[in-house]
Amino acid sequence: MRTASLVLGITGGVFGILSGLLAMMIGGIGSAFAAEGSGSVVWLGFAAILLGVLGIIGGALSNRRPGKASLLQALAGFFGFIAVSLFWVLAGVLLLIGALMAFLSRDRGSSVEQDTTTTEGQEPRPQV
User: Fold this and answer.
1) In a domain, 91, yes or no
2) HSE-up of 124 (CA within 13 Å, CB side)?
3) Which of 24, 58, 86, 109 is the right S-S partner for 72, CB 3.0 to 4.6 Å?
4) Is residue 118 part of a domain?
């Protein structure tokens, strides 16, 4: 599942960067025709590019740190929908599925048992 999260995170991040570039292009065209609010579309497209990069970083972390990877991918997937809405559908779905897979593949604890019979500065307890 970690490899699937890696692939989904990187693919979703690449599609997120492409959707951010598309939003910036549409905002630039709107700005050329003096459309109202087109400047904010350009900035939201820039934010989508940064969120795509964040999704790629989350995907790259999925093998070593799946907990942090799931958080990064989920944040990128969620806030991308806020930034560029419908342009983010493919990237958002891929990132959110990758986040779920990374979250489910994380380790829930250590399987190493510790000897708790002695602590530092105390004498060991006698066996009865």
Assistant:
1) yes
2) 6
3) 58
4) no
